[in-house]
Queue: 2 jobs
Job 1
Amino acid sequence: MLQTIPINLFRISNPMLGDVVENRRLTAETRGNLNDVRHLVFRYKDNLPYLPGQSIGILPPGLNAKNGKAHQPRLYSIASATGGDHRDHQTVSLCVVRHFWENPATGEKGIPGVASNYLCDLKPGDRVKITGPTGKHFLLPEEFKNKSLVFVATGTGIAPYRGMLRDMFDAGYAGKVWLVFGVQHGDCTLYDDEFENWARRHSNFTYIKAVSREEKNPIPQEVPTRNDRMYVQVRLFERRRQLKELLSEPDSVVYMCGLKGMEAGIFPILDKIGAETGTQGSFVAKLKAEQRLRVEVY
Ligand code: NAP
């Protein structure tokens, strides 16, 4: 495991070159463009140490139509473990959803996002320009081996946990870890086979799914969700007793990655747990101050 956090080894002026070695769709083909999520692996010759939880920047080719200048890098969370996607220290992977915009000024829909569509359309052998790595906050705690961790993800926010879990199990992790993962459809559960496999092999790993468009929220009074959909916050509330036990451990850490909207659903649950354990004031604020709540949402 790296002792120091590598930061900005490659910049816009001196990007690293990576060759695409894999572009694999992670969701059912039948979902079409709407749920098109890709696992992309780049191989490089340079030295790019990184930690899961960090991001790399991708420089899309071409010019920004608005200002005629080169595109700025788009940041994506690294989906591979410290040793590389192929455990060779020469590969890095991303989990990218094909994105479409709506122009609020014109009402035009389905405008392809520049970077995500560029990435999702890449073919093996294509060359990309990479910057980074960046990010010092959304990392595994030091000495994580016996610490209890709660990972909460929505959609492609799953990326950092894939690398973290691999690093943890490789290092003989002996704490308790939960992965609470929200997706729209069961056949869009990113990396599901990998997580199911770890859950079978590691009794200290609890893998919990919230499939929003296929499962109904059974407790909408306690935890309201859009159209009574099953969201990650419902799963956390259902397990609040075990969660309380886990968060009573002073070095346990909660991670949230994905859609910004999940904060409003999860923070009240954490505060409620805090109140029950005698915390004065906001438990969320306390957890954040103690670096026991790490959030990466957009
Ligand atoms: P998505 O498929 O749109 O949503 C994932 C799940 O979250 C769905 O089940 C969705 O339910 C549910 N959801 C929607 N609103 C929610 C709320 N308020 N509370 C809890 N759950 C909610 O997700 P996505 O398109 O993959 O987007 C993921 C987000 O992660 C993006 O904002 C992206 O920028 C961010 N992110 C990406 C990376 C990366 O490296 N790719 C890293 C960090 C963060 P319904 O749609 O059925 O309502």
Job 2
Amino acid sequence: MKSVKALLPKSIKIKWKLTFWAALLILFLFLSYTFVQYVVIMKWVNNHERQTIQKNMEEIYAYLLEADSEQEILESKAYIDILNEHHQLIRIVSENNSVLFTITNKVPKNWVSSQSALKEELVEMSPKGDRLLVYRKPFEVTGFKGTIEIVRNLENFESLINQITTLVIITGLVAIILSFVGGRILSFQLLKPINSMIRTMKSIKENGLNKRVNIDKQHDEMTELGIMFNELMDNLETSFQQQQQFVEDASHELKTPLTIIHGHLSLINRWGKDNPQTLERSLNLSLNETNRLIRMVSELLTLSRGDFSTSTAVLEDIKIKGVVEDVVENFLTLNPDYNISSSIDISKDFTLKIFKNHLEQIIIILLDNAIKYSKNKKEIELKVKHSENSLAIEIKDYGVGIPEEDLPLVINRFYRVDKARSRKNGGNGLGLAIAKRLLEYYKGSIEIQSVYGEWTKVIINIPLRKDSDVLFRKK
Ligand code: ADP
């Protein structure tokens, strides 16, 4: 046997599925209710008819028992006539099946043949299409022995049932239409947010990412879906804009060294072949630019990947003091004219769960900046301390400083306060962005304070985590 589901075409839209199921449910409920009502009414009417016929019989029986002869029974005809009801026949039949008298109200005598009974009986029959209830009860008085026979036409009952059936069919048809309309309204209400979402998605596909779904005032699961969708689109739009900005910035930054190299190569092409001085100068400058390019590309890679290739490796406890001291020592060897005074206020065994190369890279970026942007006073102060919750590293220099309006921006990719000076120092404006990205991995933060022309202080904070290293896994 085919199930109801199999009747639905496979590619049918949700709105029609919802309409169909809702209509089916409403119809089922209506029909079951009507059916129960029908059965109850039938039973009730049937009982009522039986009770009426029984009551009639009891009255006639009691009356006839008082008679003393056949003659008196005959005389009781007038009284029984009064007792008779519509659509009912009453007959007194003698023992030999001959009829003493008959009283009838719209029940033809020949429908049921007279019959004396030996014991009380109540039967239902339908000899000419009409349903009849026949009740026979034997009785005996002085001078007469016979049967009281009552035949009741259930025509009233029939017409009532017919009316109910017609009513059920008509209301059933109306119910089918109403349940279809109801199902349609229900599905429309339920699918309104989804349809709006589909329209928005279409519009996003055609016109770009800036469209959003309208959010209903009443809060339900669909509204939540809409809010989620809008948030997702916000994130997508932001990340798309960031990507676009990144590509624009990177192309712009890569173009400068490439233009310089192109210029020098043209120069060599035109004059340099015969002029060893031009040749050497241009080659050297081009080499410088290619070095810058190489560094920039590798920095860009670090930034985009976050250099988290080791992210699945288990973090180990790193002794911070040793790492900081090693980096400072390297810097002093490379920049002997600088004085880096370090106050490392943590014990030798103080450890932190961090990748050693990440910590080194962050300190190198900050010390490198401190040296690059120093003026005459080649003094750098480095402080390391820890509180209950975090480790703080502070690097202060007395160099060019950063103007107040540039402070919030220097952390952005490719942002340089003094482009010429920064380029001369080999800066691409990516160092602080890389440090920030690395710190984010450890849920750390970076803060820059400065007084323009006097000093710059960069403070980084890394939260201490005593629990599992899984917290540091790349998201
Ligand atoms: P860069 O490679 O250009 O140094 P950074 O991201 O490290 O890139 O720094 C961005 C800009 O912030 C620098 O170009 C510079 O103008 C400014 N800056 C960073 N550190 C300092 C500092 N210690 N003193 C003065 N200016 C700084």
